[in-house]
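[SOLVED] Need 3D model of a two-part complex

Original post:
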Amino acid sequence: MKLFNQKLKVVNVGLESFTESLRDSGTEYIQCEFRPPLVSDYSLFEKMKKKLALIEKANKRALERIINSKPVLVGMGRARDVICGMNGNFLLHAGPPVEWRDMCGPMKGGIIGALIYEGMARNFGEAEKLAASGKIKFSPCHQHNAVGPMAGIISPSMPVFILKNKVYGNFSYATMNEGLGKVLRYGAYSSEVIKRLKWMENVLYPTLKKSIEEFGEIDLKNIVAQALHMGDEVHNRNRAATSLFYRVLAPRIAKTSDPETAASVLEFINGNDHFFLNLSMALSKASLDAARNVKNSSVLVAMARNGTEFGIQLSGTAGRWFTGPASIPDALYFAGFSKKDANPDIGDSAITETAGLGGFAIAASPAIVQFVGGKASDAMRYTRQMYEITVGENNVYQIPYLDFRGTPTGIDVVRVVEKGILPFIDTGVAHKKPGIGQVGAGVLSAPAEPFVGAFKYFVRTVLSG
Amino acid sequence: MIIKAEVKKGVYYDSVSLMQAARAASAVEEVAECSAVMGTRENKNILNLSGMLAPEAAAASDEDLLIVVKANNLDAASKALETVNSTLGKNKESDENVSGKRAFGLDNALKFLPNVNIAVVSVAGKYAGKLTEKCLDRNINVFLFSDNVSLKTEIMLKKKAEEKGLFLMGPDCGTSIINGVPLGFANVVRRGNIGIISAAGTGLQEVSTIISNEGAGISQAVGTGSRDIKKEVGGVTFLAGLSALKADNATEVVLLVSKPPDWPVMQKILKEAEGNKPVVAVFLGSDSRKYGGNIIYARTLEEGALKAAYLSMDGSDHKAKERIFDINTQVEKAAVAEARRKSKSHKYIRALYSGGTYAAEAQVIFSDLGIKTYSNVPLKKGNKLRSSLKLKENSVLDLGEDEFTVGRMHPMIDYSLRSKMIIEQAKDKSVSVILLDVVLGYGANMNPLTDLVPAIRESFKNNKGLSIVVSVCGTESDPQNRNRVTTGLRKEGVLVMPSNASATKLAAEILRYTFKKHRGKKHGRRLVVAGQRK
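Solution:
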C-alpha cells in the first residue's frame, strides 16, 4: 500500500469540521463543496453519458455563436413597424407566456399603463376590463426577438432600439429605459408615468434616432467590455456603460439637435444610471438568438421571468419554455419596504446572465457587493462558481480581478443539474402591488424546477432522436 | 399547538448544518419542536410519525429543503423559522472565514490541489457511493464516513479498491489515523510502532488513546467500517490493512479490533496474521479459544491496548498483566468505598453510551462477571429491551443507534438527550450506578464539562448514594485536553476510570460489594478479571 509512505494530500468532501484535524496537523487539504444533483434518478445521467461527446460538440458550437456574435446599434423604430408579428392588439411582456388572470401586480400595472399610453383606455377601470376581455393578445418579448426589463411591456407605438448581429445577421429590440422610481416597467401607470413615456416618444426617440442614423452604427460590445473594467456588470450596475454610451452620443446629439432639446435629452440620460441596461439586454439577446436551434445543444438561450413563473429555453429544444414558480430575491430594500412587499422575480434582464454578464460577471463589480453579502470575496466566489456550469469563457468580456479571465459564458443545463449549482442572478425588486414601483435590489439563484424539467425533456427527446 | 412549514425549492444543506439550525430553533420559547430536513421520502415518513407533516411539506421533493415547526402559537413558529434561516445563513458566511482552499465539485478541487491521495467523504449516503467511485477511478484512497451506503454498493466499491490497490476505509468508518494525521472522529495520539486495524470506530479510539496514554505510539490506524468483516464483503479492507502493516517498516506490532468476524473472513485473517510481527487481537465477545493461530488474544479493548503497548515497548506483554492487576486492585478499593454509601435499595447499573463499541464491550464484561444486562443492542437476543426508553434492572444503552440519531446529532457531539436520560435514571432509587463514556478528540463535543456537569449535579441531588462512573477516551493533546476533563469530573464526585473496561468492572464491583454489605457476608464471588479466562 503506497499510501503509508506518502505525505497526505486530502480532499474533504462534506462536513467541514473534518478539516480541523488536517489544519492542526499541518496537512495539505482542500475543502470540496458538494451539492447533490438536482435530479436523483441516476439512470438519466447514464443515458446522457453515452452521447456526451455529441452534446459537448454541439455546446461548443452554441458557445462559439454566442461569443462570436457582434451586435451593433443600427437604429430605432416604432415597435409595430419593426418587431415581427406585432400589430395593434399586441402587447409584449417579460418572461415566459402568461395569461392575464395569472399575471402578478406589476405586470398587470404595466399592461394597464401601456393601454392608457396607447389611448386604448382612459383609466384604470377601462384598461383592466379591456385587458381581461380577450381582445388584447399577450406574448413574450422573447418570442419576437425582443427583451424588456421587469414587466417588460412593449406596446405597438413604443419606440425601440434596433440591434443587428453583424456576424449572424439577426436583429434584436428593446425599449428605452425610463429611469428609476415610478415607472411603467415596475407596474406604475399614473399620469406622470404616461407623461414621461410620451416625452420619450416625442423628444428622446427622434433625437436618438437621428443621432444614430446620421452618424452610423454604435459598437455596443466594445462598450460592455470596457464597462466591465470600470466596475459594471451591466445588469444591476450600468453607470460606466451609460457614461461610455453618453460619450458616444453627446457630440452626435449636439450636432443633430437644437441646444434645448440636446440639453434635455442628455440630462435625461445623465440622470439615469440604468439607461444602458436595455441595450445590454438587447445586446445579450442578439448574441443568444444566434445560438438557437443548434441540434443536441443543452446550452441556455434564455432565462426570463414574468413575475409569476421563471422560464428557460435551450438551444437544442427549439422555442419550448421550461418553467417553474419564480422566487422572491434576497434584497436590500429601500427605506420603508421589506420582503413582505416584494413581488416574485420578474423581467427579461436575466438575459444578461445567460450571456455571461450580470451575476455571472459580478466579480467585476465590487461597487455593488452589498447585494451579495457585502464583501468583494463573495462576488468573486459567485463568479467562480458560475464557471462550473458554463461551457466556456467569453473572449471579449473579462474580469480584471480574475487576471482578466473571460466571464463564464454558455450555461449548460446538464452541468447545472449534475452539479446542483443554479445560475446566480442580479435583479431589481418590484412592489407586488401595481403602481408603486421599485422597492429594492438584490440577488437570487434561479429556481431548480425549470432546469430539472429542461434536463429531463432534453435527455428524453433530443437524445433519443 | 400549531404546525408551520416552509419549503425551499432546490436548496441543499448538509445534515449537520440542518440539525444545528433545527436545534437552535427548538430552543426558541414556546416552540415544541423544529425539524429541518431534505424532503426525501424517509424524512417525510419521520415527520408524519411525529404529526409534523404539513400538507405543503408532504408535496416537497427530494431536492427541496423542508423546515417544519411545532409551536404554541404562530409568533413562536415564525420566530423559529427565522432562526433556522438565519442560522443556515450564518453557516454560509462563516464558510468564507475558513482558511485553506475551497472549491466546488471534485474535479475542480483536484485541479486546485493536484496529487491528492486521499478523500474524506461525509456526504449523505445516497450520494456517497457515486462520489467514492469517482475518487477510486481517479486513483484516490477514500475515507468514507457516510453511512446508509447499501451493502451492494460497498461490495462493488471494495472490489474496485482492491483491484486498484487502494484503501477504502468505510462506509460508516468513524475514524482512522494515517501517517500521523487524524481523520474523522480521531484523537491526537503519540506516533510509534503499533499498527491498528479496526472494524469498530470507538474501539479504535479507545485502543489508540490507551496505547498513547501508556507511553507507546501508533504507526497507522486503519478503520474499515463495521460491515467489512461480514462474509459478503469478505474483509477486503481489513486484510489489505493487515497486509500493508506487515509490509510497513514503521510498524512492529499489529493490533486488530472488531466484533467477531464471519468465519470465512476469520480464516483469511488468521492466514494473513502469520509472519514475524506479533499480532494482538480483540474480537469483542468471541470465544477466541476456537480461533487459534498466530494471534495473541485479548478479552477487552484495554487488555488488547496494553498488550500491544508493552509488546511494542518491552518486546513482551508481561507488564500488561501487572498493569491490569493494578487497575483491578484500584477498582476493588474504589468499589468498597462506594458500597459504604449505598442503601439497600441501590441495586442496578444503567449504562448510557455514546460509543457503540463500548456498549458491546460492557455487555461482554458484565456477562463475564455474571451480571445479566438488557440492551437496545443486546449481544444475546433474549436480552433486548422492549423499549429503548424504558430501562430495566441492569441496562446498557447505545445512544448512537439510528433510533436515537435520526434527525438529531450524534450523542458524542450533542449531549442533550443523554443528559435528560441521566437525570431521569438517577430519579429511580433502585439505580446504584450510572455508567458513561466521554469521548474526546476531533469531531466530538468541544465542551464536554459544560454540557455534562449540570446533569451530574442534578442526579447526585436526586439520588443520595448514587455512583456515576465515567471513562474518558482521549489524550492530553486532544483539543479538549483529557486532564482538564477528568479533573473537572472528579471535582463533581464522578469516579473517572482510564478505560471503559475498568469503568465497567468498577460498576459491577460496586454492585457486588453493596450486595455483600447487605447480605453481611465476608466474601463475595471472586472477581474474574479480564485476561484470566484464557
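Edit: The longest strand of chain A covers residues 390-399.
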